[in-house]
Amino acid sequence: MDQRGIARADTAVRRRAEIPVAAFHGDGAVSPREILRGDLVTVLYRASAADADYRFNARITDLVQEYDVVVATLSDGTTLGADLVVGADGPYSTVRGLVFGAR
């Protein structure tokens, strides 16, 4: 893959910062050792779908750690108890905020 580097742009698509490809020591900004987010999601979902309770189009509004379980409250009022909660809700994660506090 031909790569020139990576750049950050503002909402008017003006470059605000950039890192040339040479800064990655020949690996490029997207190296062969990386996996795209969508590919990772597919691999994890297929590997765990039979044993995990996936809830799509549901939002976690509260998390409470009890002795041996995490209780998650969803936006529809449903509560779920789990050994493990995986927050896969993106870079502005509500789950991260509930666990570690606001940014």
Automatic annotation (TrEMBL):
<dbReference type="GO" id="GO:0071949">
    <property type="term" value="F:FAD binding"/>
</dbReference>
<protein>
    <recommendedName>
        <fullName>FAD-binding domain-containing protein</fullName>
    </recommendedName>
</protein>
<feature type="domain" description="FAD-binding">
    <location>
        <begin position="45"/>
        <end position="96"/>
    </location>
</feature>
<dbReference type="InterPro" id="IPR051704">
    <property type="entry name" value="FAD_aromatic-hydroxylase"/>
</dbReference>
<dbReference type="InterPro" id="IPR036188">
    <property type="entry name" value="FAD/NAD-bd_sf"/>
</dbReference>
<dbReference type="Pfam" id="PF01494">
    <property type="entry name" value="FAD_binding_3"/>
</dbReference>
<dbReference type="InterPro" id="IPR002938">
    <property type="entry name" value="FAD-bd"/>
</dbReference>
